[in-house]
Amino acid sequence: MKKIVKLIGGLSLSILAFGSTVSAADIKAGKAKAATCAGCHGVAGISMIPTYPNLAGQKAPYTAKQLRAFRDKTRKDPVMGGLAAGLTDADIENLAAFYASLK
Q1: pLDDT tens digit string along 42-58?
Q2: What DSSP character marks residue 10?
Q3: Among residues 43, 45, 53, 68, which is most buried (max CB within 10 A)?
Q4: Which domains can be identified in the chain, with CATH numbers?
């Protein structure tokens, strides 16, 4: 089912609806899963290592896209590729929601 959503200023966005229920990301589950990430990205998503990015406050869609790219090997990094390989779509959404919640 295709829907057109009107946005401010007359712009429109086409979205594809896959069903009537959408599962929300679980920030608590994301926080638990993020324990693995804390060594490089910090417990609160602020890295102490200059070459590793801060994740706190990143927009969830951006973080999810990057994690999927690492998992699917379209973005290459030996460390992140290995860590992301075992993530499910739910894990990725939960992690992204958790990091987005940190301001």
Answers
A1: 999 999 999 999 999 99
A2: G
A3: 45
A4: 25-101 (1.10.760.10)
